[in-house]
Amino acid sequence: MRTIVTDVLIIGGGLAGQRAAIGAKRRGHDVVVLSLVPAKRSHSAAAQGGMQASLGNCLGAAGDNEDIHFADTVRGSDWGADQEVVRMFAHTAPKAIRELAAWGVPWNRVARGDREITVDGVKETISEPEAAHGLITSRNFGGTQKWRACYVSDGTGHAMLYAMSNQAIAANIPVHERMEALALIHADGRCHGAIVRNLMTGELSAYVARATCIATGGFGRIYRVSTNAVINEGMGAAIALETGVATLGNMEAIQFHPTGIFPAGILVTEGCRGDGGLLLDGNEHRFMPDYEPEKKELASRDVVSRRMEEHITAGHGAHTRFGEHLWLDIRLLGADHINNKLREVKEICKYFLGVDPVNDLIPVRPAQHYSMGGVRTDHRGESPQLRGLFAAGEAACWDMHGFNRLGGNSVAETVVAGMIVGDAMADFCDSADGSAVLSTALVAEFGTRERQRLAGISNSVGTESAFELMRLMQETMTTNVGIFRHGDRLEQAVRTLGELQRRARNIGLRSAAPGANPELVTAYRLQRMLKLAQCVAYGALQRTESRGAHFRADYPKRDDLNWMRRTLASWPQEDGEKPQLEYEALDVMRMELPPGWRGYGSRDYIEHPDTARREQQIASILGEIPGIDRHARQRALMPFRHLLPVHLRQDNARLGEDT
Amino acid sequence: MKQIPLHAATRTLQITILRHNPRDPASTPRLQTFKVEEADAMTLFIALSEIRERQDPSLQFDFVCRAGICGSCGMIINGRPGLACRTLTKDLPENITLAPLPAFELIGDLSVNTGKWMRGMSERLETWVHSNKLEDLNIDTMEQPMEPELAEQIYELDRCIECGCCVAACGTARMREDFVGAVGLNQITRFRLDPRDQRTDAEFYELVGDESGVFGCMTLLGCEDMCPKELPLATQIAFLRRRMACTG
After folding, report:
1. Which of A165, A278, A282, B35 is the most exposed place for a label (fewest CB within 10 A)?
2. For residue A399, is the peptide bond before it cis, meaning its omega torsion is within 30 degrees of 0?
3. Neighbours of A293 (CB within 10 A)
């Protein structure tokens, strides 16, 4: 077996992985990036509407800053997020976007003077100030108090990924394309790299590294209806889980995006609603204001998706032979706006639905979209259980999204996490911990194990079809572990998934094609996906409350008293059928923003006794230091800058704000 | 009540695929026909997935986003390069012939190595912002302003998804292996337009000022005709050729 040695191994070639690679490389370390597909084809490219960063340039963003971005994100998370990490993120996002601007991302810019916007179904004219002309502009998104989503038309992720990939090429970072990590090499709580399969030849090789980073994105493909790319099968999280040591955080926290086109589940951006688009029911009635008078179509995604499903259940959907759906109406935005700012949406409607959104309604229904959970890490991106294993982006749970992510916060997170984790890995490599001695026998042992596993599948005379079992898993997840969850249905899902795991050991292949063999790929990935699915279903079953995107019809309240806790799943028994769950408390007494009402959605929740105590404490701390600048007030409540790499700690300059 | 436009699904599609697995010494290039019952809103992504799942699990093809934005699934569809994921079968006749994109290394069946080709092109043309300001970039300060129209013009060229359809449709690329293609020339015009890139026309000339670059184009216009993103490739190449002719 060929062995490749490097300082830093990055598994995943999307925005997070490539930014982490650039960071580690700049610090003088050798880096290799593995990617299932050519890096520019990564799912980061699918981010459409925008990247959240509190630049505050355009009129709708005036007065924005890190404090508001922080508060919006914590409320969006339904207080599930790690507030220190959210602070690190909100502080670094403007730096990330300015770096990308210098790298060539053609961010849309503020144009001075009058322009027409659509707010609450009505056209208005606003006038952008002279001082902001040419600076990066932003659009409105759900769950935010300011227009904060900086964008490149509706191809934001594409433009970011290309600029990032080009910088990685400029830095001479090798990307080994069409390579899949099958297992992490580890011993005694230390990760040493991965056993990797070539998806063109089927050949196995070992990548030995001092630091290994999982940046493989989400695992939406455990669901039947998902906006995710077909490669989003969660293999990074799965191989971390299969170490039996590393934990996955909050796997039950799954986001459903309100506007997947129906029935294909392809995403149309939240920017449609941010720019003034409306949701209509089967009678073309605008129903969101009836449910959510405060934020209407622009409540957070979990809330809007639930309201949509609720409205369909109440009999107000539009009907087609595929089933029921609702409508997204962007006609009121006008041809000019759609042709310039929503052109990918227009293309998707044209090619997949045969409609023109300038004149026609778009059929939509919520579809699985994002995995808030992932490889549990600390604020630097390192696994607490497995030294030398890092994770960044959607694959990680460090944990800035809690139980619901805000739109535009994920592409922002990818780059910010890449900046922070890239440095953390460089620090690690530079430290005493980073120099590991490992035996070639260990590498060979892991290589042999993977070879035997593959041979076991290839040589099996089993009767089960990998494709059929995949379909059954996806069906079970969409039916029983969806937007509205219930104990009975979740128990059913856990049972079904257990049964599918047993059946998956009896898969027989029909094809023995030399090379990568796509059927073999499906078979081994399925076995891992079933474990992830079980983490989601079992975690959801155990969490007897409703928080963010995790909604239990039988426990409809957020329960801060019992559930101010993060779920940690591990898989200690290789052939076990369920994960082992543990819980990690979130300390209300350390929160800058104690739990409360989100400003949208349900007002009814069970309070934690510490909430009132912390609120009093905050009032008294702030009472003692009145009238000073916002940074000092923030620092008094929850210092965080010391957690960032030194070069990311400075204040961000902002129009009209002295720093 | 409004309805999604639907097509009466009564056809049995005959999908003929040019097959070859270079990893298999016994494999020779051959055509194989599969029968697929057409369904409502069926795309070639759905049809090919169904063939792999139900008829031939060894069939190789590449899909990633399945939404027309990642550029993975370029292939020859009834003689024309296009993105398979967003091609609806209802827009095709009953007999559909699929072949891998020419000009790229074959991985197997419909899967070709566009990634390797594109990375090579990027390295050769240095498709990134060249600026001495990047060395000590201060990201705590305000970004440099840019005219809003200019940002939109750059994005217009930045929309390329490197799918390879323009290369497959290019007469020069079929004759000269070293031709950078419309995809490469478009990137040069993109960075040339971008004021953040400090390269001069003389430097761009060094990269594309010969027959493997802008002077290799025979103006057959296949690139622009076949570009799934409808990029103004022919105009950009003509413009670049004029600039380069002046420079050289």
Report:
1. B35
2. yes
3. 9
- Give how far A565 is from chain B: nearest CA, Å: 34
Distance from CA of A83 to the nearest CA of B (A): 22
Is the minimum CB–CB distance between B140 and chain A shorter than 8 Å? yes
Q: Do A340 and B24 touch (CB under 8 A)?
A: no
**B70, B163, B187: which to substitute to probe chain A, counting the most A Cβ within 10 Å?**
B70
CA distance A258 to chain B (A): 17
Structure tokens at B54: 């139900």
Amino acid, single-letter form, for residue A433: D
SS (H, E, C) chain B: CCCCCCCCCCCEEEEEEEECCCCCCCCCCEEEEEEEECCCCCEHHHHHHHHHHHCCCCCCCCCCCCCCCCCCCEEEECCEEEEHHHCEHHHCCCEEEEECCCCCCEEECCEECHHHHHHHHHHHHCCCCCCHHHCCCCCCCCCCCCCHHHHHHHHHHHCCCCCCHHHHCCHHHHHCCCCCHHHHHHHHHHHHHCCCCCCCHHHHHHHHCCCCCHHHCCCCCHHHHHCCCCCCHHHHHHHHHHHHHHHC
* pLDDT greater than 50 at residue B225: yes
Average pLDDT over residues A389-418: 98
The reported pLDDT for the residue numbered A320 is 84
* CA separation for the pair A54, A654 (Å, rounded): 9
User: Sorting pLDDT into bands at 50, 70 and 90, what band is B9?
Assistant: low
Residue A115 annotated as catalytic: no
Q: What is the pTM of this model?
A: 0.97
Which residues in chain A are closer than 8 Å to B69, comparing Cβ atoms? 45-46, 155, 158, 344
Catalytic site includes residue A257: yes
- From chain A residues 70-89, the ones with a CB under 8 A of any chain B CB are none
Determine, for residues B148 and A108 on separate chains, whether the beta-carbon distance falls below 8 Å.
yes
pLDDT digits (tens, 9 = 90+) for B106-142: 999 999 999 999 999 999 999 999 999 998 999 999 9
The answer, for B225 touching chain A at a CB cutoff of 8 Å, is no
Of B23, B67, B107, the CB nearest to A46: B67
- Cβ-Cβ contacts under 8 Å, A113 against chain B: none
Q: Which of A103, A135, A344 sits opposite B145 (nearest CB)?
A: A135
Q: Looking at chain A, which residue has its C-alpha nearest residue B65?
A: A229
CA distances in angstroms from A602 to A202, A546, A597, listed in the order given = 51, 10, 8
Query: Is the pLDDT score of A192 beyond 80?
Result: yes
For β-strands B12-19 and B95-99, DSSP reports them as parallel
Number of CB pairs, chain A paired with chain B, less than 8 A apart: 235
Q: Is pLDDT above 80 for B2?
A: no
CB-side exposure of A267: number of CA atoms within 13 Å? Answer: 25
The rounded mean pLDDT for chain B is 95
Write down the ipTM of this complex.
Answer: 0.96
Chain A 543-572, residues with CB within 8 Å of chain B CB atoms: none
pLDDT in tens, A96-155: 999 999 999 999 999 999 999 999 999 999 999 999 999 999 999 999 999 999 999 999
Question: Each residue of A252-272: b (16+ CB within 10 Å) or e?
Answer: bbbbbbbbbbbbbbbbbbbbb
Segment 76-105 of chain B within 8 Å of chain A by CB: 86, 88
Q: Percentage of chain A with pLDDT > 70?
A: 100
pLDDT of residue B157: 97
Main-chain dihedrals φ then ψ at residue B123, nearest 5 degrees: -65, -40
Report yes or no: A12 at the B interface, CB cutoff 8 Å. no
At A472, the pLDDT band (50, 70, 90 cuts) reads very high
Asked if residue B8 has pLDDT above 70, the reply is no
Note whether A167 contacts B: Cβ–Cβ < 8 A. Answer: yes
Could you give the CA distance from residue B150 to residue B153 in angstroms, rounded to a whole number? 5
